[in-house]
Amino acid sequence: MPRKKDIAVMDEVGIEVDGDMSDSDDGATPRRGNRRGGGGRGGAKGRGRGKKPASDDEDGEDEEDEEDEAPRGRRGGNRKRATKKRGGSDEDEEEDEAPKRKRGAAKKKKGKGQDSDEEEEEDSDAGRGRKGKKGGRKGKKDDEEEDDEDDGKGKKGKGKDKGKDKDEDDKKKKKKKDGSSSDSNSNDDDEEESMSEGEIARLREEVEEKKTLIANIRNKPWRMKRRLTHLKEAQAFVDKFEGALGKGKGKWARKWYAYKVMMTKKWIKFQRDFENFRTACIPWERKIKEVESHFGSSVASYFIFLRWMYGMNLVLFGFTFGLVVIPEVLMGLPYGSIPRKTVPRAEQETAQDYSVLMDFNGYCKYSVLFYGYYNDQRTIGLLKFRLPLAYLMVGIGTFGYSLMVVIRTMAKNADVGGGDGEEGEFTFAWKMFTSWDYLIGNAETADNKYASITTSFKESIVDEQENQKDENIHLRRFLRVLANFMIICSLGGSGYLIYFVVKRSQEFATRDDLSWYEKNEVEIIMSLLGLVCPPLFETIAELEDYHPRIALKWQLGRIFALFLGNLYTFLFALFDEVNTKLEEEQAIKNASIWAMKEYYANFSRLMNDSEATPPPMDPSDVIRGPCWETAVGIEFVKLTVSDIQVTYLTILIGDFARAVIVRFLNYCWCWDLEAVYPSYGEFDISGNVLGLVFNQGMIWMGAFYAPGLVLINVLRLLSSMYYQCWAVMCTNVPHERVFKASKSNNFYMGLLLLILFLSLLPVVYTIMTLPPSFDCGPFSGKAKMFDVIMETIDLDLPAFMGTLFSYAANPGLIIPAVLLMVLAIYYLNSVSEAYKNSNNELKKKMQMARDEEKNRRNNTDSTNQVMKDLEDLLPNRSLAPPPEEPEPEPEPEVKPTKTKPGKGVKLEMDVTLASANPNARGPGGRPPGPRGPGPGGPGGPGGPGAGPGRGRGRPPPR
Amino acid sequence: FFIISCHCTDNVAMSLQDCTYFTRKEILRLFYRYRDLAPQLVPLDYTNHPDVKLPYELIGSMPELKDNPFRQRIAEVFSDDGEGNMTLDDFLDMFSVLSEMAPRDLKAYYAFKIYDFNNDDFICKSDLEKTLNKLTRNELTEDEVRMVCEKVIDEADLDNDGRLSLEDFQHMIVRAPEFLRYSSGNLLFTI
């Protein structure tokens, strides 16, 4: 590829010189033909004189030609770059710019028209025209020297240029001609033929070129007027000459192009619409964006997390209601048919009281919301729906699904987060130049966009300041250790306090003479801890002086640890309750069985009938057990509901009332309420996230015992979304240092996973070990809840499945499977570790390459300055003796003592030849440093062209 | 009315089609939009290439531009006189460059011109400051502005001359994810 580029650039050079010679643009075609012929002859002569060892070999010469011209080509290319950089943006001024640059532009003239960046193409026409008159310092000089020179020397290079025309085949042809002419030492006949052929080829080329111009004229950053003019010219040209060449497809091509454009446009539009549609399908996207634009991505990350939770809970809700609750309501026995579905007689008086219902007793307790309501019939309804099995499966499936989703999301986020690191290359630049959305056509959206751009700049500034912070590392470390020590102390202290209080409450449980405080000691201590500790942690965290994002993570982790104590006490109390209930139940069960036995005994004795019919008793009068599952479920529901109440009230009082007071009392207060003390609240990210996480833990634990809990949770999350969005937008102020959330919410997810695991344990424990209540729930009458699976396997599946399952449950099979999994985990882990290492390695390399490139550019630039100065001196210097020849001359017959005007050009030749090798090395890999000793180095500019050419040697355009 | 204008603009439209990324229909639509900005100024008949310019006040009040912080710059860059007064050609040019069909190089080139407030062919610090203040409505403190500008130059300036050349700018912007996505609104109008 570099090679090809070289050729292309070189051709440009050739044409440019051509243009120089021929003063006018289009009318010059015949003359060009002449030139070309002359060139061919010149080349032939030059070569004839050349007599170098390999000169017979055509290919070898070909190679050499390229190498010869490469430096010039590069110069052209460099000029081109320079021009583009400096003047390219202003075409109108272009006309008046230094001829030097014009030359650079002109060089591009014949570049392959397809490249859209060849914007100067037309400039070159103008430039070329003027160059002849005005006489660009450089180009002009070249010209003159060439003209003055006796044919061979200067034209040799040109001829070769000519020979190597843009068109590949044309070039080949030309080459052949050159070769033949070199053999036969220039015949006039040959020359004539080449002229006409060349002319046609040239014409064809020109037409093609104009056509590409027509096709690409849209891509040129010109004024419309210029575009139209050029278009007209080009079209006229094409129309004029196309017929001569026997080609006429312009109109169809244009129509085809129009069709293509239309289709592409439609496709793009469809894509955009689809994208919009997809965005519109994501709920609350606009709400969250609005919050994000004012409060930063960290606050938005909470809402995104909330939305994610809502989605997950919606699925859980679908499972629970679709497979358990709705079937039970539709197909199960109606309320009042059996004891478990009836409110007991003693409670019927108060069953509809508001306070009772609010405690989820009364009708609530004996409703479909709780475990106890479900019947233990194996199948219900016409569809023979296996409700108990479904119940168990949904209970387990809830956990399975949650685990899967959490882990999958974490993995996906990790993927996204992976690309997070090296994005920093152009953070600010991209923000600055690409953040405005030009499609915004509405003032409100624009306001939001302004806010979000400002916020995101602030976020990045905070990050940047954090990077720049140079600090006393020892002091910082000491402070961090100190802070952690203090926090561990307070965590340990509160842990012990909880333990102590729970222990004491167990003691109190046996006594009756308790004061109010003693009764509620655990709750009071817990809420006090929850009230005091988080601010305390936050204060201590000030010592650490972490970046706010990292500080948030620490804060989350610490409060999480504190709240685990909460969870622990709660579970502890719960298991106590369950155990007492179990004992109580055992007694009742025995009693009722005994009563039943009595009844049946009496019944059969009286009726003399062994057929057992249930006692004629109203279902509400039947003696029943405490049904610990429902009790647990009620406990969880109550907890969730009170949590909702507390959260919402906190927002209402702590944020809204505060904001109202601060806002309106500020008019008549002695100090500035808004600025000084109470001020407005900030959005408490850590508290809210943890609230959400622990709430979800409650749901997971409670959903098995209270299917209705899932519904409550879904409603809570839904209302929470709107309520909190409203609250944050109208009562809170952004954080002092708005910081960017880590792209992946994986820390939140990690906490969620931990909670999921912690809540999985008690539920699985109860399912596997505790006996279900004998008279309520879908598993009543079984020794263990999971017996329902055994039953299904035994009764519903073919016999071999049973044996299959028993094999699968064999420890001999399970242990190797576990072993295999552990090994697989180990293997995958080490593989990922290796990948990570190589990734880091690559990143480092990329960084190094970037730095290097930057450095190189710097060097080039400074060298450039030197070279520019030298260039200015060149007219005088061209007469100076040539610099040391770095390589043996490939052309021995070049005599250093020639006529003076010719010297410059000859030297140029020397230099170009001498520098053949560096170019052959490949234009890409040329280091900038060792330019000094090169032929064009400061030691003595080899010739008018070569010196600057080398000096300008930037890395070639990619 | 429609037929007449169709007929009159036919030739023009043909060549305009080649010069923009629009189909004939879209060019006509844009022409009507242009005309609707000032029906009393713009004639229906464009065969004679009347020399009509709409003042910036009218151009800047279009829904596409009116909320854009860079509207003045956009109008200036695309207008012939550099003051934001646009002829129909300029108008079409603007929409063409900002259409979704325009290649990124072209967009980048014009983006560079838009951000180059003082027209010196380099985005220097003062240009960056202006851009930033427009983007954030002067909400950042001076220190922050200075820091951001330094960072931008530090990131994107490859030849260390303390300002961004077109080359630097293109090198930086064609890698921007926002710039790569078709659906993003960066430098994009719809008609």
Automatic annotation (TrEMBL), chain B:
GO biological process, one term: calcium ion homeostasis
Top-level taxonomic group: Eukaryota
GO molecular function, one term: magnesium ion binding
UniProt-listed SMART domains: EFh (SM00054)
Signal peptide limits: none
Record bears the keyword Ion transport: no
Keyword Metal-binding: yes
Boundaries of every EF-hand domain copy: 103-138, 144-179
Keywords: Calcium, Magnesium, Metal-binding, Repeat
Pfam family, any one: EF-hand_7
PANTHER family, alphabetized: CALCIUM AND INTEGRIN BINDING FAMILY MEMBER 2 (PTHR45791), CALCIUM AND INTEGRIN-BINDING FAMILY MEMBER 3 (PTHR45791:SF7)
Protein's name in the database: Calcium and integrin binding family member 3
